[in-house]
């Protein structure tokens, strides 16, 4: 099955609906969609909605880790919404859910005022 992506923006929150299989062949497509979204108008929250996800393998998990790196660098909070049981199990076994969904730290100025 192919990957199906659709987007919806509400203010500064972008929802990217992910359906089908997130695997070695399709993960690059999701990463490209996220990269394009982050290059667009100001986004503070990225919601990946997995309601229609049917499969995720290790390449998909690797892609989610890369997406987290991209969103953190951009100061965007990543949300993994409506996770199916199979994805939840992968996240539980690997222990990365909290890592992926922790709000990115804002850089605080030092005492000298330099960030």
From TrEMBL:
Listed InterPro entries: Anti-sigma_ant, MlaB-like_STAS, STAS_dom, STAS_dom_sf
PROSITE patterns on file: STAS
Residue span, STAS domain: 3-115
Molecular function in Gene Ontology: anti-sigma factor antagonist activity
Pfam families: STAS_2
Family named by the database record: Belongs to the anti-sigma-factor antagonist family.
PANTHER family: ANTI-SIGMA FACTOR ANTAGONIST TM_1081-RELATED (PTHR33495:SF2), ANTI-SIGMA FACTOR ANTAGONIST TM_1081-RELATED-RELATED (PTHR33495)
Name assigned to this protein: Anti-sigma factor antagonist
């Amino acid at each position: 099955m192919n990957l199906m992506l659709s987007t919806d923006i509400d203010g500064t929150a972008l929802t990217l609906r992910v359906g089908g299989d997130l695997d070695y062949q399709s993960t690059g497509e999701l990463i490209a969609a996220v990269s394009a979204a982050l290059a667009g108008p100001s986004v503070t929250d990225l919601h990946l909605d997995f309601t229609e996800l049917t499969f995720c393998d290790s390449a998909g998990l690797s892609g989610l880790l890369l997406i987290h790196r991209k969103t953190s660098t951009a100061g965007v909070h990543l949300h993994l919404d409506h996770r199916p049981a199979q994805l939840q199990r992968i996240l539980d076994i690997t222990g990365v859910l909290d890592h992926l969904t922790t709000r990115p730290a804002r850089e605080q100025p030092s005492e000298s005022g330099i960030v």
